[in-house]
Write a structure and sequence with these properties.
Protein name: Ice-binding protein C-terminal domain-containing protein
Number of domains: 1
Distance between the termini: 14 Å
Shape: elongated
InterPro entries: Ice-binding_C (IPR013424)
Helix content: 10-25%
CATH topology: Jelly Rolls
Keywords: Signal
Structural class: alpha+beta
CATH superfamily: Galactose-binding domain-like
Largest sheet: 6 strands, antiparallel
Strand content: 35-45%
Number of strands: 11
CATH architecture: Sandwich
């Protein structure tokens, strides 16, 4: 019985390990001259609406992507950054990043996504408070089934009007939104669970045969 339990425990452990969360794509903006185009899974980065980028101080001793040139009269949710990520082979996706705004940057950002590479849908609106530090943001795509296993999946982070309003709201009280405002991004990460490969019929046969051998050995020991 002990041997059979150990075998079953080992099998369960293998099944669980196959469900571990993995990094699908990551931008840490820390090394090389093409930092903003690097990722873990061949993903791509682009700016939206004429936004420009440089690099500035990030978390601790790291660097962050600094975005600027947000037009004062820009249309709502039309300026920011875009990450196209092939999620083929992954499910239960989760997106996270750290953000730091200057006083005159838009306090609100919209997190948008696409399932076809063309049509963008607003998932949520995020508020980044004023201050000298970074704010951590995250969003789960677990309930958005179409994001799973999708070669055309993408995410945008774009400046957004204040909820219910018709204009941008500056991050710091007493400031006015303007083109001089900047937004920094750090550790932009999409994580997911790898979709297990479907075992071939012969694999199931070998597994059952192995369990049968273990059971036989256990019975013989018990009857000895």
């Amino acid at each position: 019985m002990k041997i059979r339990l150990l075998a079953l425990a080992a099998f369960a452990s293998m099944s669980l390990s196959a469900q571990a969360v993995e990094v699908v794509a990551l931008w840490d903006f820390n090394s090389g001259t093409t930092k903003h185009t690097q990722s873990a899974n061949g993903a791509s980065f682009a700016t939206v609406g004429g936004v420009t980028t440089t690099f500035a101080a990030g978390l601790s001793s790291t660097q962050a992507l600094n975005t600027a040139t947000y037009a004062a009269n820009g249309a709502n949710q039309s300026m920011g950054v875009q990450f196209m990520i092939d999620t083929t082979g992954y499910t239960d996706l989760s997106f996270s990043f750290s953000q730091r705004n200057s006083n005159t940057a838009s306090a609100y950002s919209a997190l948008k996504y696409t399932l076809d590479g063309t049509t963008w849908i607003t998932a949520t609106t995020l508020l980044t408070p004023a201050g000298t530090g970074f704010t951590s943001h995250s969003f789960s795509f677990a309930s958005i089934v179409g994001a799973n296993n999708n070669a055309n999946f993408g995410i945008q982070l774009v400046a957004s009007y204040a909820p219910g309003g018709s204009a941008y709201q500056a991050t710091a009280a007493g400031s006015s939104f303007g083109a001089s405002g900047t937004i920094r991004y750090e550790n932009v990460t999409l994580s997911g669970t790898a979709i297990p490969a479907v075992p071939e019929p012969q694999t199931y046969a070998l597994m059952l045969a192995g369990l049968g051998v273990v059971t036989t050995v256990a019975r013989r020991r018990r009857s000895a």
